[in-house]
Amino acid sequence: MENVHRFPRLEQSMSQRFLSTTTNRSARGLHIRLRIAQHDGCFIRIPSDHASPEDQKKVSFITSEGTFCYVAMPFGLKNAGATYQRLVDKIFHPQIGRNVEVYVNDMLVKSKKAADHVKDLEETFSILRKYKLKLNPAKCAFGVQGGRFLGFMVTQRGIEANPLKIRAIIDMKAPTCLNEAQRLTGRIAALSRFISKSAEKSLPFFKTLRKAKTVPPANLLLKN
Predict the structure, then answer these.
(1) Which of 67, 146, 175, 189 has the fewest CB neighbours in a 10 Å radius?
(2) Does pTM top 0.70 for this prediction?
(3) 8 Å CB contact between 181 and 173
(4) From the record, what ranges are coiled-coil (predicted)?
(5) Is it the case that residue 124 has pLDDT exceeding 50?
């Protein structure tokens, strides 16, 4: 059965949250990015489909030592992401939107004032210890004032475009075939919320993709 638990639409909601939470004129806010660790490709402590033996058999795997079943939710299953999101939504509910943002196993602890940062971290670590969740130190960043989170740049000013995505477009060659034009429009779409009148500016490319199987020279696209 499909797990229909919703994922947070962070690309829409985070901007206002960060603008109202991290911006402070008298003191610079701080962030910490955390990554909850996994063990052998499984989400720690999440039973596979509530440890139902019938369901565990459906995702069994064969090794040279015999056939085995997962006892924890593995990556690759349809419900894996929703199952984990349900968990973190439940255990971090008192903090989400206030001093924590969490998407599956990616977390961001945010503080309005530098003086509050240690207290916010203590609250977060207390919950992690309570539910026996561990962090991956190699993917954690402490006491930073900005950084990448879920493909966006998070700063005191709010959510900004990721420079790497901008550079990917700048470094692209002019499209000469359909696949290259599709790749370009996909990269532009990823930054559309940061581009004024992005739909209008991208219209020539989308018209070409709808009408033709081959792409005319880039200068003709830009001229149109």
Answers:
(1) 67
(2) no
(3) no
(4) none
(5) yes
Q: Which two tokens stand for residue 221?
A: 């696209």
Element (H, E) at 63: strand 61-63
Q: What torsion do the CA atoms of 110, 139, 194, 157 make, to the nearest 10 degrees? A: 30
Q: Which whole-number Å values give the CA distances from 47 to 71, 86, 131, 185, 203, in the listed order?
A: 6, 13, 14, 41, 48
Predicted confidence band at 29 (pLDDT cuts at 50, 70, 90)? very low
Name residue 195's beta-bridge partners: none
> 149 near 139, Cβ under 8 Å?
no
> Two tokens at 86?
């349900």
Q: Where do the structural domains in the chain lie, given as residue ranges?
A: 10-46+71-160, 163-223
The sheet with strand 42-47 has its strands ordered as 38-39, 42-47, 72-74
pLDDT for position 122: 93
Per CATH, the number for 10-46+71-160 is: 3.30.70.270
